[in-house]
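Protocol step 4 of 6: structure prediction from sequence.
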Amino acid sequence: MNQNIRRFHDARIARLEELSLKDILRRKNPYLFRAKHVVTASELVVGIMDAFLSSSEEKLFGDFLEGLAIFVSQQVCGGYESSAEGLDLEFVRDDTRFLVSIKSGPNWGNSSQKRALQEAFRRALAVQRQRASGLRLEAVLGICYGRTRTGFNGLYTQYTGQSFWHFLSGDASLYVDIIEPIGHEAKRHNDYFEEKRVALVNRLTKEFVLGFCDDSGNVDWPRLIEFNSGNMGVNSTLH
C-alpha cells in the first residue's frame, strides 16, 4: 500500500511542476475572481492555482482509491484488473465471477456516464456467458466512500463505503483501518509539496505582474479577460 501512496504524492508533485501560468489562467473563471474583489496579483494567482490543483487532486486521489481497491482484492482472493471496457476489476469467489466497476465517491457521474456503465456491464456479462465457465456471474458497482445503502437495480449490485471494503475483503472494519496507512509519512510528503508550491506561486506571480498588470501595478482585468476568453478572430473545429 505504501508504494501506491507514494505514487499518489509523486503524481501531485508532477502535476504541480507541469503547471504554467497560461494553463491556470485559461482553465479557470476570471469573472469569479473579479466578482470576489481579488485585487493583488499574488492573491489572484494563489486562488486560481489552488482551485486548479484541488480539482486535479480529486481525480488523482480517486485513481489512488480505485487502485487500492484492486490491490486489496489481489491480496485477498487473487483479483486482477479487468480487460473489459468500462470495468476495473474481476475476481472469482465462492463459484461466482464478479465483474466490478470502481468509483471513488457517490457523485461519480452524470446520466450519460451511468448509461455507459450499464452498457459496459451488459457487454461484459454477455462475453462471460458465451464462455460458459459454469460460474455464476455478478456485476458490481463499488464506491469507495459514502453512506448509500447496498442495493440491486436488476443489472448490478452497488456497494458503498464500509460495505464495499467489506465486500472486497470480508473485513467489516477495513474501511477504518486503511485510514492509518494512507496517512503514512503524509506530513513529509506535504511539506515537500508546500515547498514546491510556494516556489511556483512566486514564479507565476512574477509572470502575472509582467503580463497582466498595468504600469501602476494594478491587475489589468480587460487584458486578462481577453486572454482567457477572447476568440472572435480564432477559427477552430469542434471535435
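Step 5 (inspection) to follow. The chain has a mean pLDDT of 90.
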